[in-house]
Amino acid sequence: MAVRTKICGLTDANAVEAAIIHGADFIGLVFYPPSPRNVSPAKAAQLVAPVPDHVQKVGLFVDPDDELIQSALDAVPLDWIQLHGSETAERVQGIKQKFDVPVLKAIKIANESDFDAAKSFESAADMLLFDAKAPKTMANALPGGNGLVFDWRMMQGLDISLPWMLAGGLNAENVTEAVTISGATRVDTSSGVEFEPGRKDPKAIAAFLTALKTLNAE
Fold this sequence. Notes:
- With about 220 residues, the chain is of the alpha/beta class.
- It has a single domain, classed as Aldolase class I (TIM Barrel, Alpha-Beta Barrel), CATH 3.20.20.
- It is built from 7 helices and 10 strands.
- The chain has helices spanning about 15-20, 40-50, 65-75, 90-100, 115-120, 175-180, 200-215; strands at about 5, 25-30, 55-60, 80-85, 105-110, 125-130, 165, 185-190, 195, 200.
- The strands form 2 sheets. The chain has an 8-stranded parallel β-sheet with strand order 7-6-5-4-3-2-1-8. Strands 9-10 form a two-stranded antiparallel sheet.
- Helix 1 (about 15-20) runs parallel beside helix 7 (about 200-215) and helix 2 packs parallel to helix 3.
- The longest helix is centred in the C-terminal third of the chain and has 16 residues, at about 200-215.
């Protein structure tokens, strides 16, 4: 089965172009001011202007209020709302119903017990994203995009009814192993294709997507 790919946290036109040219299935825009990858709705509108319809646009939010979501949707025709904070299942369902946009809910993983949280979202979200949980001792940790990896072996035999996406420290060097071990059919990278937080490397984007194309061809 082909592996679909998401490049998240795009902030400039060159990175968007690289994602499109090299075959990304999803692009992610961050609407979370504390993040170095944050973009305004106006900036996001500029970035998505050249994005073809077959590439799905994902807006990432962290415990957002309705006003922030609406401001983003007014500027960008998002295909997905990604919730990467401590949103409850009730809040996820409320956002989905209010805005009539599919919801991708992030679940932070450090050990096997963290997968239990996914169960409560199976009737509320449309897709789940499993990302590495930052340790409490990590300075200046963000809700996501910290470049951390969790043990993919924990995902073998995962019993989840929703489609899901794998994230957490993925890059061109480790994504093939990550997919092979976890069984993921969707993967997401942000920090793994950057010069530094907030600055994407078009060559790294190309290498990441090429690695997945090679895997899909096998």
